[in-house]
TrEMBL record:
<comment type="pathway">
    <text>Amino-acid biosynthesis; L-phenylalanine biosynthesis; phenylpyruvate from prephenate: step 1/1.</text>
</comment>
<keyword id="KW-0584">Phenylalanine biosynthesis</keyword>
<feature type="domain" description="ACT">
    <location>
        <begin position="195"/>
        <end position="269"/>
    </location>
</feature>
<dbReference type="InterPro" id="IPR002912">
    <property type="entry name" value="ACT_dom"/>
</dbReference>
<feature type="domain" description="Prephenate dehydratase">
    <location>
        <begin position="5"/>
        <end position="182"/>
    </location>
</feature>
<dbReference type="GO" id="GO:0004664">
    <property type="term" value="F:prephenate dehydratase activity"/>
</dbReference>
<dbReference type="InterPro" id="IPR045865">
    <property type="entry name" value="ACT-like_dom_sf"/>
</dbReference>
<dbReference type="Pfam" id="PF00800">
    <property type="entry name" value="PDT"/>
</dbReference>
<dbReference type="InterPro" id="IPR001086">
    <property type="entry name" value="Preph_deHydtase"/>
</dbReference>
<keyword id="KW-0057">Aromatic amino acid biosynthesis</keyword>
<dbReference type="GO" id="GO:0009094">
    <property type="term" value="P:L-phenylalanine biosynthetic process"/>
</dbReference>
<dbReference type="GO" id="GO:0005737">
    <property type="term" value="C:cytoplasm"/>
</dbReference>
<keyword id="KW-0456">Lyase</keyword>
<dbReference type="Pfam" id="PF01842">
    <property type="entry name" value="ACT"/>
</dbReference>
<protein>
    <recommendedName>
        <fullName>prephenate dehydratase</fullName>
        <ecNumber>4.2.1.51</ecNumber>
    </recommendedName>
</protein>
<keyword id="KW-0028">Amino-acid biosynthesis</keyword>
Length: 274
């Protein structure tokens, strides 16, 4: 059987890489990219069978541009994965925290460790493409005085020493990843979660009425995120995740929203993994 091709942002040891292995197993071909738009493109062109994208973190919040990418590239969400995230502060073996003047990592990782660096103001923060590639580059370039924030798996792969463990602001830290595919999903009644984009007409109390309708139908709104409609300055669309027990009630709710509030795009229907 040919191996599935899975597109990720990041190199081996990155959190995306870990999700790929946990979700699809070891027998896959990983296509690694530097940016999220390249991941999206590889799924659209068929170069990759599926793509993996971080979408929100329990400390740092949503990765806004990824909502827009999924929408613009017309991708479908087929599944989700919650990965516990432990950030390790690492450098070349023998270095101490006093030796470090600069830390490089993925911007989301830096955000998750803000409190730690507030206590070490002598360390300059620099954004980089992903967590693990920094560990790789420090090792390859024998870079003294520079540290990475990455997983313990990355420290093992690239021979880095962990100077401080679990430096994220809250120990209990998770990133939600979504698994993307090009084709629209086949309807299935065995799902209990949907990701949608609702573009509501601007009317007084419109959003409040929409939320009331969802609550009245006993559907759990697990996430709401507004993003600007760029063609119409100061108008917003809402990415809304719904968790439900009854597929028919959910479908009827979507119909009611379309009838009374505006356009609904179903981005994915899948099983909640929370
Ligand atoms: O840099 C990595 O290792 C990634 O997989 C990226 C990423 C992200 O995009 O949020 C994934 C999980 C963590 O929240 C930090 C960084």
């Amino acid at each position: 059987m040919t191996q599935l091709k899975i597109a990720i942002q990041g190199v081996p040891g990155s959190f995306h890489h870990q999700v790929a292995l946990r979700n699809f197993g070891e027998d896959i071909e990983i296509l690694d990219f530097d940016t999220f738009p390249s991941v999206a493109k590889s799924v659209v062109t068929g170069e990759a069978d599926f793509g993996i994208m971080a979408i929100e973190n329990s400390i740092a919040g949503a990765i806004f541009p990824n909502y827009d990418l999924i929408d613009r590239f017309e991708l479908s969400i087929r599944d989700e994965y919650y990965l516990p995230i432990g950030h390790q502060f690492m450098a070349l073996p023998g270095q101490t925290i006093e030796d470090i003047t600069e830390v490089r990592s993925h911007p989301m990782a830096l955000l998750q460790c803000k409190a730690f660096f507030a206590q070490h103001p002598h360390i300059r923060l620099k954004e980089d493409t992903d967590t693990a590639s920094v560990a790789r580059d420090i090792a390859a370039g024998n870079l003294k005085g520079v540290a990475a924030i990455a997983s313990s798996i990355a420290a093992g792969i690239y021979g880095m020493e962990i100077i401080a463990s679990d430096i994220q602001t809250i120990k209990n830290n998770f990133t939600r990843f979504i698994i993307l595919q090009k084709e629209p999903l086949k309807p299935s009644t065995s799902v209990n979660k949907a990701s949608t984009k609702v573009t509501i007409q601007n009317q007084k109390g419109g959003l409040a009425k929409l939320l009331t309708l969802i609550a009245d139908n006993e559907i759990d709104l697990s996430k709401i995120q507004s993003i600007p409609v760029i063609e119409k300055p100061w108008e917003y669309a809402f990415f809304i995740d719904l968790v439900f027990e009854n597929y028919t009630v959910y479908k009827n709710t979507i119909e009611e929203i379309q009838l009374n509030f505006g356009d609904v795009k179903i981005i994915g229907e899948y099983l909640s993994r929370k």
